[in-house]
Amino acid sequence: MVVAQKIRCSHCGAPVEFQPGEIVATCKYCGFTTVIETGKAFNFEHSLLLNRFDEKQIEESIRDWMRSGFLKPSDLAKKSKINEKNLIYLPFWVVSVQASSSYKGIFERIAPPIVKEGKIEKEYNWLVLARESAGFPTREYDVPLEGKIPYDFRRIEGFARVLNSEIDRDEAVELAKQQIDAHHHFLLKKDVDRIVEMQTAYNVKQVVYLHAPIWFIKYEYKGNAYQLIIDGATGAALKGDIPTTKF
Fold first, then answer.
1. Is residue 11 part of a domain?
2. Assigned domain for 217 exists
3. In 3D, which of 132, 138, 152, 124 has the Cα closest to residue 214?
4. In this predicted structure, what is the pLDDT of residue 5?
5. 170-204 pLDDT, tens digit each
6. pLDDT tens digits, residue range 75-88?
7. Beta bridge partners of 149
8. Strand 81-107 to strand 15-18: parallel, antiparallel, or no bridges (unpaired)?
9. CA Rg value for the chain
10. Residues near 170 by Cβ (< 8 Å), separated by ≥ 6?
11. How many domains does the chain divide into?
12. Global pTM value
């Protein structure tokens, strides 16, 4: 277990805890956000999504998920034991960007092959997890941006854990561009069999630093351990382990 380090909040003077590798920290006493390396104020928009569930209500959402879907065992909700319910506010960068990809490709599914040229033009609120861990299903998370408010430390539950960003704004923008480029390649492969060239231009309109409430659940069913991830803002299940069922 890595021991958290401390700096003093430049706004209120209270100790601000952070883990090695984190580069943006938020004071839990006054909500002031600081760039750890420089100690300077964080000058980008910092938003918050509110958690809508207490520990009893989230258990109801868990049981509802267990009861839904034909692939789950019929007794899953009844016979499962919920061992852990952890609320964590994860940090994200939301990159609002217009992406335009000009391409040339060859459609080879018929003879003779056809050369295709065109553009893929889309606007995104592209979500980048601000942590090095790759375990969170970012692409499955349809972040409810319409519900965001300015970051308010007073609205965060005392039992919740708040994680800080391990990447800065510029890194997040570059990651978003790389991921969008890969996504456009995926879209293009539906229309052509071979991509000859593709160039993508980006117009970054806004970058927001966002903390979102995510429930991490561990449950047990017939002696085996499983995990479930639930969006605390909407109650939607983002990813869940399902016990195998014999038909």
1. no
2. yes
3. 138
4. 63
5. 999 999 999 999 999 999 999 999 999 999 999 99
6. 999 999 999 999 99
7. 48
8. unpaired
9. 22
10. none
11. 1
12. 0.85
Give phi and psi for 192, each to the nearest 5. Answer: -130, 155
- Nearest 5°: the CA angle 60, 64, 68 is 175
DSSP string, 122-146: EEEEEEEESSS---S-GGG----GG
160: three-class secondary structure by DSSP: coil
Q: Which structure tokens are listed for 6?
A: 């401390």
DSSP state letter for 152: -
Residue 215 tokens, joined: 């429930």
Structure-token match 């003779």, residue found: 112
Give the length of the chain: 247
The token pair that represents 57 in the structure block: 């209500």
Residue 90 near residue 127, CB atoms below 8 Å: no
Half-sphere exposure of 204 (CA within 13 A, CB side): 16
pLDDT band at 36, cuts 50/70/90?
confident
Is 24 within 8 Å of 38 (Cβ atoms)? Answer: no
The parent domain of residue 114 ranges over 44-240
Name the strand (E) or helix (H) holding 58: helix 55-67
| Residue written as token pair 């006054």 | 30
- Taking a C-beta distance cutoff of 8 angstroms, is the pair 119, 233 a contact? no
Contacts 24+ apart (CB under 8 A), 226-230: 228/62, 228/65, 229/136, 229/137, 230/58, 230/61, 230/62, 230/65
Flag whether 15 is in a domain. Answer: no
- Amino acid identity of 221? Y
Is the residue at 39 inside a domain? Answer: no
